[in-house]
Specification:
170 residues; binds adenosine-5'-diphosphate
């Protein structure tokens, strides 16, 4: 179908949170096809590998037939061009996201003038949720119910346990 509207939702998703999933569901109901793309972020030291992050997102989006999950090491604007998509979806949280996202949107458009960035807001209870906050809470053994999709909680707990063991055996 030539008129298919495909959007791309990029991020680190380390790991996918309930906030991410809320944005994914909203975007999937607006566009014909949504590609969730795990991007390599050189600035971050990830808890999960790219493949693990892709797998986790696949598990929590299995009920959404128009969502596909991919990963990429290239520039987002180039990736979008290759996929024939003109829309980047971003989630906007209260506070600090705006400046950074605005700058990224401008840069992406400079690289690919046809590209638009559309911002969605998640439900209010996810407004302050980020992967890094969740990882910090998890390190203290806090209850992660509501912050992460149910099946992802165990992945995070297992990874923290594994990392601790490796730290002790060093
Ligand atoms: P994080 O900051 O949680 O590590 P990512 O880099 O994976 O997030 O974020 C990918 C996209 O999802 C970004 O556009 C980010 O603003 C958005 N996002 C992340 N968490 C939320 C949330 N709780 N509500 C709305 N948008 C979110």
């Amino acid at each position: 179908m030539t008129n298919m509207k495909t959007a791309i939702y990029p991020g680190s998703f380390d790991p996918v949170t309930s906030g991410h999933l809320n944005i994914i569901r909203r975007a999937a109901s607006v566009f014909d096809e949504l590609i969730v793309c795990v991007m390599v972020n050189a600035g971050k030291n990830p808890m999960f590998t790219l493949a693990e992050r892709v797998d986790m997102i696949r598990r929590v989006t299995a009920d959404l037939p128009n969502v596909t999950v991919d990963c990429s090491e290239e520039l987002l604007a180039e990736y979008a061009r290759k996929k024939g998509s003109r829309v980047i979806v971003k989630g906007l949280r209260a506070g600090s996201d705006f400046e950074n996202e605005f700058q990224m949107a401008m840069i992406n458009r400079k690289i690919n003038p046809e590209l638009d960035t559309m911002f969605l807001t998640a439900e209010h209870q996810f407004t302050y949720l980020s992967s890094s906050t969740v990882k910090e809470l998890a390190a203290y053994g806090a209850d992660l119910t509501g912050f992460l999709p149910e099946t992802i909680i165990q992945d995070v707990r297992d990874r923290i346990k594994k990392n601790r063991k490796e730290e002790i055996n060093k």
